[in-house]
Design a protein that fits this description.
The protein is an alpha+beta fold. The protein is built from eight helices and 16 strands. The strands form three sheets. Strands 2-3-4-1-5-12-6 form a seven-stranded mixed beta sheet. The protein has a five-stranded mixed beta sheet with strand order 9-8-10-7-11. Strands 14-15-13-16 form a four-stranded antiparallel beta sheet. Strand 2 (about 30) and strand 3 form a beta hairpin. It is globular and about 80 Å long. It starts with a strand and ends in a 6-residue tail after the last strand. About 30% of the residues are buried.
């Protein structure tokens, strides 16, 4: 166990699903049983601990787990001694202040003298202090959005993703305090052996994440059009060009962003490209 990296992961929910998918794509195979709280990988020196999301920062800070995947909002709320080693780019949301839709919002001073319901009192208190606002913080552990409707609070401070929950409770978002996403946190000053394992794990994650939204493209080009087509296919450095058996033609290989796919395809065809083949990419190693 001393030479194995221990990672804390949320027990269930979307963050768990995204975390497990990323770990799987790095080639780490965790042996999972039904309702297990601990899992070990046979092909990588890693063990997983499954915990409540709000327990993960302290577990990592105390060294019970070496690293953990947690929402940045939970990390900031707990104020534990941990470091962010990588932003993961999923489970994105924001922590915002919201008020009843029927009220007019005049700016941050609106909250002076108001009662605000939240599950994130630490983050909220910091924002109130920075804006010189005196408000009463009412801590609620769940269903924060119903507080104004039942007369428990004048406003709420809570997680917002799509905003549909606010709409269904006749609330409107008026101030975004922080943007949050899943982050990989670590115990400060990891032992050298565990740091080396972590570095390898991060290398694998980055290889997977680089491939997101990318496509590998292969096409045939007349040799006199290679420079024109190359300008449309910058790739990672520049396109790979391989001569074909048919004289005067070459095969060109590159990487394109999926968002730019159709626009680039049209330009390639116009430039003389033929036999265009586009395939998914699983990983990109630099």
């Amino acid at each position: 166990m001393e030479n194995r990296l221990k990672i804390a992961i949320q027990t269930k929910g979307r963050l768990n699903e995204d975390s497990m998918q990323l770990i799987k794509e790095t080639g780490v195979s965790l042996s999972m049983g039904r309702r297990t709280l601990v899992a070990s990988a046979k092909n990588f020196p890693m063990d997983a601990l499954f915990l409540r999301d709000d327990d993960i920062p302290q577990t990592v800070a105390d060294g019970v787990a070496d690293i953990g995947v947690v929402g940045e909002n939970e990390m900031l709320e707990k104020e534990e001694d941990v470091v962010i080693v990588k932003r993961l780019g999923f489970s994105k949301c924001r922590l915002s202040l919201a008020i009843p839709k029927s009220l007019e919002y005049t700016g941050p001073e609106f909250f002076n003298g108001k009662k605000i319901a939240t599950s994130y009192p630490v983050i909220l208190k910091k924002w109130l202090t920075e804006n010189n606002i005196q408000a009463d913080i009412h801590v609620i552990t769940g269903s924060v959005e119903i507080a104004p409707g039942i007369g428990l609070a004048d406003a709420i401070f809570d997680i917002v993703s799509s905003g549909s929950t606010l709409i269904s409770n006749r609330l409107k978002e008026v101030e975004v305090v922080i943007h949050s996403e899943a982050v990989l946190i670590a115990t400060p000053n990891l032992a050298k052996e565990k740091q080396e394992i972590l570095d390898e794990f991060i290398f694998r994650m980055e290889s997977v994440q680089r491939a997101v939204g990318k496509k590998y493209i292969l096409l045939n080009s007349p040799n006199n059009k290679i420079q024109e087509i190359a300008a449309l296919l910058p790739g990672m450095k520049s396109p790979t060009v391989v001569p074909l058996a048919q004289e005067g033609w070459s095969s060109m290989h590159s990487v394109i962003a999926e968002d730019d796919f159709w626009e680039i395809i049209g330009k390639l065809k116009k430039a003389g490209a033929e036999g265009i083949l586009v395939v998914p990419i699983e990983k990109m190693i630099f």
